[in-house]
Specification:
- This protein is α/β, with parallel strands linked by helices and 265 residues long.
- It folds into 2 domains: 6-78, no CATH class; 97-232, 2-Layer Sandwich (Nucleotidyltransferase, domain 5), CATH 3.30.420.
- It is built from 12 helices and 5 strands.
- Helix 2 packs across helix 12, helix 3 packs across helix 4 and helix 5 runs parallel beside helix 12.
- The radius of gyration is 20 Å and the shape is globular.
- It starts with 5 loop residues before the first helix and ends with a helix.
């Protein structure tokens, strides 16, 4: 039984370290603790289960688990700051080389047979956009930004930079070749390795950062694609949630699970 509850004990220690209250809310019946909600939601992402199935799954192991409706509500009620704190608790070092990139999370997961069966010609273009800061040395997610609607990649940089900016080198593709990004990194002592756009040489800070640009070092950026590949293969490249809050909670739980798995290894 002690081995079965290893994940529950680990989450309990992290919550105690973050000085979080024992229960999700101070009102209402005190039947399930915050650690029970987080454990169930985390297992849901790791095993790619629905809310109903994760409840039945954990009951089989004689674990205390809230009902699927309570899990659905708690996923929206848990503060995004708590998810950020949990993600930060899995990072016990100062990052040196960080890559930034974005990917799309599909909001539907139809099979190829179903698409052929309904004779659908136009593909579904809706998706949730996920932008990340990724530590290329330790293969960990440092900061996340989730959008319900797609925007240009540059728009997410400031939000990610506020959450994590204690690193020395930033790697990014051509989409992030912006004078504002070069300026902010230069002011904070960060060297950028961003592939320059064609025929674009203007910009005081862009020229300063390009003096130390190395094409060989720039290719470390591709390791963030490896991080996305692991993220999607292990936990799914789609989300079945309907609200932006739930999609954000899922993204943080998957990144937290990915970092936690590296700690175990």
């Amino acid at each position: 039984m002690k081995r079965e509850n290893k994940l529950l004990i680990k989450i309990q220690r992290l919550l105690k370290k973050l000085n979080q209250r024992e229960y999700l809310h101070r009102f209402g019946p005190k039947k399930y603790k915050l650690k029970h909600h987080l454990t169930a939601l985390l297992v849901m992402q790791i095993c790619k289960l629905s809310l109903r199935r994760v409840e039945k799954f954990l009951i089989l192991f004689d674990m205390k688990v809230p009902t699927y409706s309570a899990l659905c509500k708690s996923r929206k009620r848990i503060s995004p700051k708590l998810f950020e704190s949990l993600l930060n608790s899995t990072i016990s070092f100062q990052s040196k080389n960080v890559a930034i990139d974005s990917t799309g999370i599909s909001v539907q997961n139809p099979s190829a047979h179903f698409v052929k069966r309904i004779d659908r010609k136009n593909l579904v273009k809706r998706f949730v956009k996920l932008s990340v800061f990724f530590d290329v040395d330790n293969r960990k997610f440092l900061a996340l930004k989730v959008r319900a609607k797609p925007r240009h990649d540059v728009m997410d940089f400031n939000s990610l930079f506020r959450k994590s900016h204690n690193f020395k080198n930033l790697f990014a593709d051509t989409a992030y070749d912006s004078e504002n990004i070069h300026e902010k990194c230069f002011d904070n002592g960060i060297q950028t390795f961003i592939k320059p756009r064609k025929n674009v040489k203007r910009g005081f800070y862009r020229r300063k950062q390009m003096k130390n640009y190395s094409e060989e070092r720039y290719h470390q950026r591709s390791l963030v694609e490896t991080g996305f590949s692991i993220y999607k293969r292990k936990y799914g490249g789609y989300t079945l949630t309907k609200s932006a809050k739930s999609a954000k909670a899922e993204a943080y739980l998957r990144a937290f699970a990915s970092n936690l798995n590296l700690i175990n290894n």
